Every structure is written in C-alpha cells, then in structure tokens.
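DATA SHEET
Item: assembly model
Revision: 1
Owner: S.N.
Input lines:
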Amino acid sequence: MDSLSLSLKIYKNLRRHHFRLLFSLSTSHSKKKQKIFSFEMVGSVGFVTVAGVVAGGESNGKPEPLPEELINPESLLAEEDLPIEEEKPKREIVLGRNVHTTCLEVTEPDADDEVTGEREAYMAGVLARYRKSLAERTKHHLGYPYNLDFDYGALAQLQHFSINNLGDPFIESNYGVHSRQFEVGVLDWFARLWELEKNEYWGYITNCGTEGNLHGILVGREVFPDGILYASRESHYSVFKAARMYRMECIKVDTLMSGEIDCSDFRNKLLQNKEKPAIINVNIGTTVKGAVDDLDLVIKTLEETGFKHDRFYIHCDGALFGLMMPFVKRAPKVTFKKPIGSVSVSGHKFVGCPMPCGVQITRLEHINALSRNVEYLASRDATIMGSRNGHAPIFLWYTLNRKGYRGFQKEVQKCLRNAHYLKDRLQAAGIGAMLNELSSTVVFERPKDDDFVRRWQLACEGNIAHAIVMPNITIGKLDDFVDELILKRSSWFQDGKIRTPCISADIGVDNCACKLHK
Amino acid sequence: MDSLSLSLKIYKNLRRHHFRLLFSLSTSHSKKKQKIFSFEMVGSVGFVTVAGVVAGGESNGKPEPLPEELINPESLLAEEDLPIEEEKPKREIVLGRNVHTTCLEVTEPDADDEVTGEREAYMAGVLARYRKSLAERTKHHLGYPYNLDFDYGALAQLQHFSINNLGDPFIESNYGVHSRQFEVGVLDWFARLWELEKNEYWGYITNCGTEGNLHGILVGREVFPDGILYASRESHYSVFKAARMYRMECIKVDTLMSGEIDCSDFRNKLLQNKEKPAIINVNIGTTVKGAVDDLDLVIKTLEETGFKHDRFYIHCDGALFGLMMPFVKRAPKVTFKKPIGSVSVSGHKFVGCPMPCGVQITRLEHINALSRNVEYLASRDATIMGSRNGHAPIFLWYTLNRKGYRGFQKEVQKCLRNAHYLKDRLQAAGIGAMLNELSSTVVFERPKDDDFVRRWQLACEGNIAHAIVMPNITIGKLDDFVDELILKRSSWFQDGKIRTPCISADIGVDNCACKLHK
C-alpha cells in the first residue's frame, strides 16, 4: 500500500483537529478509542483509514442547527487560529476548512498498480468501510424526512448507463440514453393526484425540493414580473434564496405557534401592497414543525383583500407532506381545482430514493406564457437544470408501481400512528413535545448532549429538536430512542437532577412540560 | 397480466400518433415492423409493450436541434389538431404532448399481485427491455459529449443508501448518510488541477454543467451587483438563462468562424459600457464547435480597456474541455493564477458517470464576501441546490483514483487523435468538416436523413451536425459511422447524385467541400 495515498494532510491546526477527533470519540465510543490508539501505534496508515471512517461516521464537527438559523457572519472571518474550545463551545463555521482534514484524498496510481492490484484493494477497503458506516448511520436516523427503507436491487443493472433526460421531459432529444417514458409516467401519476388534466399540465423530475421551489417561484415571477413574494417565516430557506437570486421583493409573514402561516398578518401585509400582484409560497409541511399552511384560508384572504385570481400565483411547497396529505382523509386537499399555480414535492423523502430528487407540476399555460411573453426559453428547455438525472424517474416509477395508492395510504397511516406513539411516550416521560395534526414531525426539547443528537441525527433549532417518523421508523426504533433519551437525560443536568426547560415559546403552553406549564 | 396496466392511453389524436409510429418504424426498421404487426394481431397488450420499447428507443419525434435554436413560439399555441405532415415536416414542438402516448403508465397493483407475482414479472419485463434499448442506444452514440465507457460495478453496493450531502460540502450536517469525505477529496483534486490553494478555494459537486454556470454567474453578480454579463453568442444556453433568472443586463459578443469569442467586438462593447463592472463567461469549449475562448486575450482586452482586476469577474465554463485541456501540453492554461473567479466542469462528460454531475470551484473570498455583504446565505449553504446527490462524488472519486492524471492524459490524447481521424476521413469522402485545435468535436455537413441522425444521435444546428469523440469512441466505431454515412448519403439526393451543400458560413471556406470551395 502506498503510504502517500493514505497520509493525513498536514494543516497548521492539524494538531488540534487531531486531538479534537480523539476527544470526541473517547466520549461517545469508548470501544473505538482503543482501536484508534492501537492503529496509531502501527503507524500513520491505519490512523488515516480510521479517520476516513470517522468522517463517514459521526465524529467531525458539532451538530448543525436547521437551515433557518442564520450563520454568524463573524465566524466566516475566522483566522487560521480559532479560539481554544470552551466547555460548551459554539459550533465553528469555517467555510472551506472542516472537512479537509478527514477527506479521502485522490492520489495518483503507481505505475505498477495494475499489476499488483494494490489500488483496487485499497479502494475496495475504503468502500467496504464506508458501506459499513452508511449502514450504521442509516440505522440510527430520526431527524430528516428521508424514507431510508427501499430496495432497488432490480434497478442495479441500469447503473452501467449514463441516463440523461436533458431538456424538456415531453420533447425527445437526439440523445437516446434517456428515461422520458418513465419520467412522464411518473408525472402523469402526480398530475392525476393533484387533479390536473394531462393536456393541461407541465412538469419534470427535479434534483431536489429546492429545485421545485426555485422553479415554482420563477414561474410565478415570470407570470407577474413585478409581483411580491409572500412566504411565512417558517418556510424552507430555499424560498428566500430564490427571492434573492431572482431579485424579487419578498415579505415574510408571521406564523402561528403551530408553524402555520398567520393569515391575519398576511391580510395586513397584502392590504399594504395592494398595487402589486402577489406570489405566495404555501407550505404543505414546514421544515421544522411539519405545519401545513391552510391553503383555503390563504386563498380566502387573497380574495377578501381584493386580489382577483389573475392577480396572484400560489406555489405549494409540498416537500414532504405534499405526498402524504393526499392519503389522509380529513386533510385539506392540495388540488389544481383550486387557484394554485404549481406544486412541488421531494422524491427521496416519503417515496425513498438513493439520491435526492423531486417532482414539479405546474400549469401548461404558465409554461407557454413563459416562452411566448418573456422569451424565457433560450431552448425548448423550461427546466432549471439542463442535464437531468435519468435514474431518479426510474426509481420513482418503480416504487409508485410497486406500492400504488393503497400502499402509500397504508404507510402514511403507519407514520402518523407511530408519530403519535412517539409524542405520547415523550410526554409520558415528562419531556415537552408537540405533534401537529396531519404531521409525522414530532418536536421536542432539544437534548443537551451533542453526541446524542449526532448519534440519532436529530435536526435542532434553538431550544427544540425534531424527529420525523418515516416509513422505515418502527415502534421498536422509537422505543430504543426514547429509552436511551430517558436513560441519558438525567446525566445532562448538574447533580443528575432534571430541570425540564421551558419551551412554551416554541411549542406552546399546552405542550410544554416545564415546572410552570406541566 | 392486467390489461389495464398496459393499455395505450386514448387521445383525440391517438389514431394519427399510432399510424405515425408504425410509419416511422417501417421506414427505418423493417424487421421491427413485422414484429409490431404480429403483436397487434394478438391484442392490445403486446402492442403497448412494444410501444414502450420504442419510446425507450428511437422512433418518437423528429430530431432535435441543439439548444441554441430558438423555439418557434407559434408552435406552442398548436391546437389538438396539427396539420398533416408534409414530406419534409418541420419538427413539432408541443410542450406537454409528445411523450404522453408512449410513456410507461404507473398503475395500481392488483390486490393479489403480491401472491401471483404478476406485478414483479411485468416490471422485470419492462426493465429488461429498457436495458436492452439502453445498450443499443449506448452503442450508437456520437453526438453528445458523454463518456459512456465506465464500470462502477464496485459501487453497486452503495445504491441501497440514501446518500445526501445536503448543504455545504465543508460543513458536516447532522444527517450522517453523506459522502463529504469523497466530495472534498474530489474538490481538492480539481483545486490542485486549477492551481488554487486548499485554504483559498470553495466549491461543490453540482448536478450538471448548468448548475456550475448558474452558480459561477451568481457569484459574479453578488460580487458586482450592477455588473454587465458578457458572453459570446455561442455560449451554452444556460448562460443566457442565468442572465434572465438573475435579472442581469447581458451583452452578447460576436464569435469568430472557429466559434471563439471575437475580442475586437468584445473590446468595442466594453468601451461602450465602461461605467459598469464586467462579468464575463469564458467558454472552455463551446457546445457546438468545441471552440476554446482565448482566456489570455480576454483578460488582455479587459486590461487594455481600463478594467482593473477589481472591476471584472471571469467565470470559465469548462463543461467538457475544462477537464481535457489541462492534459494537452500546448493548450493555454486555465488557472486561478490568472484573474478568474470560478471554473465549472461536467463530471458525466469526460470522466463518465451514470447521472449528470459537475464540479464548481471558486475563490473562498467570494463566498465569504457573498455571505458577509449580501447576507446571501439564509443558511450556511452557498450551493444552489439544497439536497445534493451523494453518489456522484463517489463515482468521480472512484474514477479519479483509478485513472489518475496519467490515465486522463492518455485518454485525452486518444480522443484528439481519433477526432483528427474522423475529420480526415470525412474530408477524404468529400464531406465538409471542421475540427478546432484542442478539440475533439468534429463539425460537418448535416446528414439529410433524420433517421440516420437519430440512429447516431448526432446533435444538429442549422446546416451542421457534430460528433464528439469521447474515450468510448473507437476507430472501429468511427469507421462504421463514416462507412454508413458514405453509403447512405447518395440516396438522400435526387437521382442519387450528390450535390455537396455549401456550409462555408458555418465552418469557413477552407473546410467547406462544396463545388465552389473544395
């Protein structure tokens, strides 16, 4: 084995990184600690190999809050030498630094590598360890809305092909290695789900939920070039990113305790800006609390403040719940029979997919308007990305065909049931917790231990954390989680005496379990 | 088998679509024609199965010109009933129509599907046929710059995981199932290639070349909010898409015959707009002609017209040749030692990858400036997409490690040699052809037969077509192509008498093989 290919990169602050790495391991994984030491004793090669696994694992960096938290701009200015960590260190945000020390360097093959097979052996080793860490990480995962339970074994045969749906899904390209027939099959299914006729919709399979939002808001802006974008404070950060990218005026609307848009604030803000058309982002499930904006009330508010249907455009960001809501009987319907312009949903979330993807559906008339009026299309491509992953549509097509409407319905019911179970268990243990109706996102008191947060991959914001109950989250896993939380929680307080924090500002008085509110 | 799940969707104009489909098959694939008829005789089920394969294959729609060709807006207004095709029909562009009739519909599983295995069998059948069509299409492919020769068998084991590098590559997220350690390894390699220090660059693995351009131009705009975007007419359409998305003033610069930017026109346009900073898109290989803009001359022109280094931002769109040029000794260098702001390159092109991806590298100072000055980051995410495909970095890492610098060098040399071979053979056959120095894109007289164009998946624009010689294109394949072209060409002219068209306006007098110029 070539020692260069495995050497740890030397940085000015390597030494501290090094100690830090060991330190964080020693607190959470005592078994691994020994392993590292023994590796160190046999030289640098083994050490770096372990570092690689660790990077794939869990030990680098402090936990990351949810995207809504603004970064501290000062931290971006940080010099080489950051202050020594205090006992409760603030997470350092140093763009372009953290991961370098643990990354898997690309190295030149030796001239004789093909003969000796050393290179192949090295890479096989890296991949095997990486695979093991992925399996471990997949097992302990609660915080992100990804369904990690899928079996696409039948599709492995397609990985050999460079499948690219470049450009428009409905217009064949000369590039023959595409999967439009699957893509349009999937799009038809979603158009049917959201009640838009085949000859009245346009859409495509996107790279992720963000691309759906970028597209929906862009369509809105092209329909109303001087429109103002309205979005609740708890909207996904990509919505505000879009506003800045597209140079649109953007007004943030307040939210209720549940996380839903506050329509009385919305009304006031509309009345202050009656002269300009409105482009509204409606959340079908917010990122943090899984709150579903009341689409009907949003429309009613627009109508009552004098916005006719030709003066507003609604984009529904259905990242996760856009695909769950249709299967819940009592849920308000997302449908193109209402005056909405576009709906986007993620494909890797509820459906589950090896890579991020999403579905974007809009009205064909808007895409036509786009191309006619603003000469938007430099080509016949009305997508945001030019080349598009042709594998994603096949994954989606495969799952939709296998599970069907009824299969999804069952899974949604299971998720909602299990989410209630989690909330009930937390509350029974005296831990403040909230679960919105129609949601499988359980919000609760942020665990005070970063290792615990990292181990269960919880997403945190301020004083709260959340777990999202997806189809791969069983009652057994939830029990393991709650049991461990209860077991460890007392040790996070001085003298082991639990002082339940007040999080009523985040989840409301009724859900808070602090001394005052319980 | 469930006949509903296989039924052809009925459209008003189904009948014509139907006949058209058969017609196009009968002209180009006489063997298949018989097959279809025989299937028809046994009922609709077999017929649709064949239609599915056809859609994965080659028979739907007329060939697509390159993206630069503007769509005919009238065509978007087309009603249900389009005019009957003439002998040389214009390609119909009807958004939201073409592919519906041939798509693979998603259908509900039957209640007993799990018992009978019917559904699994049906899907396995669809996939097997699809796989076959992909293999066929991959074999006959010349027009797009994708290296279709790769073997990622060792990575198939990772398809079971939902790998997502959400957010910034350098800052770990709580979501543990990521591949940042591979991603940063790849980024380091590219930063080294383009000579930017580890602590001075920022970058990420994108979803495609377009995302790289969108990002580079956005960085340029945030550095110079009132800057004017300059790009040659032959720039990729995503550059002009970016200008419209970002509401930037954009000035198109003329090109030379080779396809390179015309710096004397550039100079004039700069002089007319001296009061505003300049953001310049420099093409390291244009889409159609593979022309490489003269980066040094662009910088010189900027300097000579009084633009100091703090008044311009250069983004290099290196989609294909950005990764080939570094391996050509005599090629002008793309390097951050010159005053450039960002470079992007596609990963699925020269490297080869099952799905589109790309690499974007920029200066860390710009990303910092971005976050400090314009509060661009709603999160610590300076990427365009939020969730990002975690498999792509592993594919790239794998190939870079296996082939290394020397491996790429060999492949680049082979491509350039084979491109010369193709150009020479075409010219020897009396067919006008052009090959830019440093390029493997051979531009030639557009074949007059759409079936031929489709079969070889050539990209066409106006009177010219091109073939791009990638590592998977052997001399044998080029010989097959030229032999077939020569054989069929005479039949495309009346009386079989070849009248070589004049394409000197596209490829220059020296390269044209028409009666006047040869």
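QC remark: Chain A touches chain B through 156 residues (CB under 8 Å).
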